Amino acid sequence: MDLSQFRRDYLLGGLSRKDLNPDPQKQFSLWFEQARNTTAIPDPTAMTLATVGPNGQPSQRTVLLKYYDEKGYVFFTNFESRKAREMKENSRVSLLFVWLDLERQVQINGISERISTAESAKYFMTRPKESQIAAWVSSQSHTLSSRQILLQKFQEMKTKIGEGKVPLPSFWGGYRVVPEEIEFWQGRKSRLHDRFLYTRSDSAPSGWAIERLAP
């Protein structure tokens, strides 16, 4: 299938150096709030997480950002999943937010680290009960012979828990990505896009150096 003519121009606006906040976390917060308030973007928290396996093979998947602050960007998963196993071996990861209706994307490169059990428990208790139960019954990324078996395990656990509280699984919790680089990309006409890269720098007043990159 030839897709060479499948294209559109990006005309919504541009991004100037003078418009950037010196702190990339604050710049991200501004863009995130704009994405959240754009009805055409149903899930602005969706982000691609890229990890690298021991054989050098990258892998990607979509995860959901659950909260962020000056320390980094937090998501949750099973500690026995492929991404968790790969992060244990190589903590360097990359996140990518794509908000095409705003003609924007944000790439975050940094170091992943497990958050505390207390932090994980605090979030776990906010999840719908059936989502809590699902965390118990899914051996994420492992081979599953049939969906029926998964549903059966779910129903068995649901019956076992009954009206009681669902405890935090010891094999489930959160990771924080501590950023070392953050790139903001804004689409522009004729593919002359705007790209600005923040890199941690002890010599910069804000702690971050900012450079414009060629598109």
TrEMBL record:
<keyword id="KW-0560">Oxidoreductase</keyword>
<dbReference type="InterPro" id="IPR011576">
    <property type="entry name" value="Pyridox_Oxase_N"/>
</dbReference>
<dbReference type="InterPro" id="IPR012349">
    <property type="entry name" value="Split_barrel_FMN-bd"/>
</dbReference>
<feature type="binding site">
    <location>
        <position position="66"/>
    </location>
    <ligand>
        <name>substrate</name>
    </ligand>
</feature>
<feature type="binding site">
    <location>
        <position position="131"/>
    </location>
    <ligand>
        <name>substrate</name>
    </ligand>
</feature>
<feature type="binding site">
    <location>
        <position position="127"/>
    </location>
    <ligand>
        <name>substrate</name>
    </ligand>
</feature>
<feature type="domain" description="Pyridoxine 5'-phosphate oxidase dimerisation C-terminal">
    <location>
        <begin position="172"/>
        <end position="215"/>
    </location>
</feature>
<feature type="binding site">
    <location>
        <position position="83"/>
    </location>
    <ligand>
        <name>FMN</name>
    </ligand>
</feature>
<keyword id="KW-0285">Flavoprotein</keyword>
<feature type="binding site">
    <location>
        <position position="185"/>
    </location>
    <ligand>
        <name>FMN</name>
    </ligand>
</feature>
<dbReference type="InterPro" id="IPR019740">
    <property type="entry name" value="Pyridox_Oxase_CS"/>
</dbReference>
<feature type="binding site">
    <location>
        <position position="82"/>
    </location>
    <ligand>
        <name>FMN</name>
    </ligand>
</feature>
<keyword id="KW-0288">FMN</keyword>
<feature type="binding site">
    <location>
        <begin position="61"/>
        <end position="66"/>
    </location>
    <ligand>
        <name>FMN</name>
    </ligand>
</feature>
<comment type="similarity">
    <text>Belongs to the pyridoxamine 5'-phosphate oxidase family.</text>
</comment>
<protein>
    <recommendedName>
        <fullName>Pyridoxamine 5'-phosphate oxidase</fullName>
        <ecNumber>1.4.3.5</ecNumber>
    </recommendedName>
</protein>
<feature type="binding site">
    <location>
        <begin position="191"/>
        <end position="193"/>
    </location>
    <ligand>
        <name>substrate</name>
    </ligand>
</feature>
<feature type="domain" description="Pyridoxamine 5'-phosphate oxidase N-terminal">
    <location>
        <begin position="40"/>
        <end position="159"/>
    </location>
</feature>
<dbReference type="InterPro" id="IPR019576">
    <property type="entry name" value="Pyridoxamine_oxidase_dimer_C"/>
</dbReference>
<feature type="binding site">
    <location>
        <begin position="7"/>
        <end position="10"/>
    </location>
    <ligand>
        <name>substrate</name>
    </ligand>
</feature>
<dbReference type="Pfam" id="PF10590">
    <property type="entry name" value="PNP_phzG_C"/>
</dbReference>
<dbReference type="GO" id="GO:0008615">
    <property type="term" value="P:pyridoxine biosynthetic process"/>
</dbReference>
<dbReference type="GO" id="GO:0004733">
    <property type="term" value="F:pyridoxamine phosphate oxidase activity"/>
</dbReference>
<feature type="binding site">
    <location>
        <position position="105"/>
    </location>
    <ligand>
        <name>FMN</name>
    </ligand>
</feature>
<dbReference type="GO" id="GO:0010181">
    <property type="term" value="F:FMN binding"/>
</dbReference>
<feature type="binding site">
    <location>
        <begin position="76"/>
        <end position="77"/>
    </location>
    <ligand>
        <name>FMN</name>
    </ligand>
</feature>
<dbReference type="Pfam" id="PF01243">
    <property type="entry name" value="PNPOx_N"/>
</dbReference>
<feature type="binding site">
    <location>
        <position position="195"/>
    </location>
    <ligand>
        <name>FMN</name>
    </ligand>
</feature>
<feature type="binding site">
    <location>
        <position position="123"/>
    </location>
    <ligand>
        <name>substrate</name>
    </ligand>
</feature>
<dbReference type="InterPro" id="IPR000659">
    <property type="entry name" value="Pyridox_Oxase"/>
</dbReference>
<feature type="binding site">
    <location>
        <begin position="140"/>
        <end position="141"/>
    </location>
    <ligand>
        <name>FMN</name>
    </ligand>
</feature>
